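Hi, here's the filled form for the chain we discussed.

Project: internal
Contact: R.S.
Residues: 361
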Amino acid sequence: MKALLIALAAQTADSSSGGVKVSGYVTASYVYATNPTGQAIVGRLYDRFHDAFMANAARITFERPVATDKRDAGFRVDALFGQNATPLRSAGLTLGDQGDLPQAFVTLNLPTGGGGGNYVQFKAGKMWTLLDVELVDEVLNPNVSHGYQFVYLTNFTTTGFGVDAKLSGVVDAQLRLINGWDVVEDNNTGKSFMGRVGVTASERLGLGFLAYYGPEQAGNASNQRYGGEFVGTFKPSPSTTIYAQVDAGGEEAIAAGGGNAQWWGAGVWGVFDLDPKLTLALRGDYMDDSDGVRTSGVLGFGVVPSRTIASGTLTLNVKSWAHALVRPELRIEHSNRDDFGNPGDLSRTQVTVGLALSYMF
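And the returned structure, exactly as it came back:
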């Protein structure tokens, strides 16, 4: 889906032994905020500390990819260490405060013929979510920081069973039966579902339709979380890629007074290859947490009955060094609440500037 991902992946040099490939990256960063709360940058995921150098991530992947034209088996394990692991960790899996396994799964491939390389793959273990334009690994995203939709409206990872299918040269589909959102050990007696259908309409246009349903409240399998997402990819020229994402969801009996909660969000990304070694990425996103359940008390946000937040982000991806990625970033964000700053000097607007440096291998 992402032209930027392909360009970055082409820079990496995987080493293999006995069919197992080893890859990964190391990232460090610095961010300065105009309205921090103490040392914290409210509302942010990885880039959450003001005026501090961060040892964000040392991630290593061991993977035995599967062949799609025959019966084959493989696996993938991602080990992540550093400050990025702290907010990413799933309940029920402990590798320390700054360690995580974002993915650890087995894949079985079954070709289905048809002359187009169609297949069905069965997966079991811990995997990235099917949702979102953005990914857990920030080096694969157009921007350094994650947008509000990724942080607050969807999950990071799933643990369970999955089926992926390439149905034709145009249509693919994925289905997950999981313990829940960001839990390895199920927190209730119910299971959750997540599914996606992708349509590659042409070389320039791709569409994805996603949905989820299941109980996510601890100790309660009756109240359901539900929602859907649309993701579109449009490539008007070889050097330009546009992404769009719209989310809408809700959850039963979780709002104030025991009512149902609703939320929605929208985001647009523009990725422009200005030069083989320079890419400009722009992102605008908006989120309406109508009942305050997705943001209240999370990553420094105060508890409120409702909240709307928006941000605009500009990132340069500089690829002048082999295997390295240098990314300066400017982000402006606005809330309808006084969310940013210290007590007595609160603001609804915040500006951050930062720099991230990554090495990929």
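Let me know if anything looks off before we file it.
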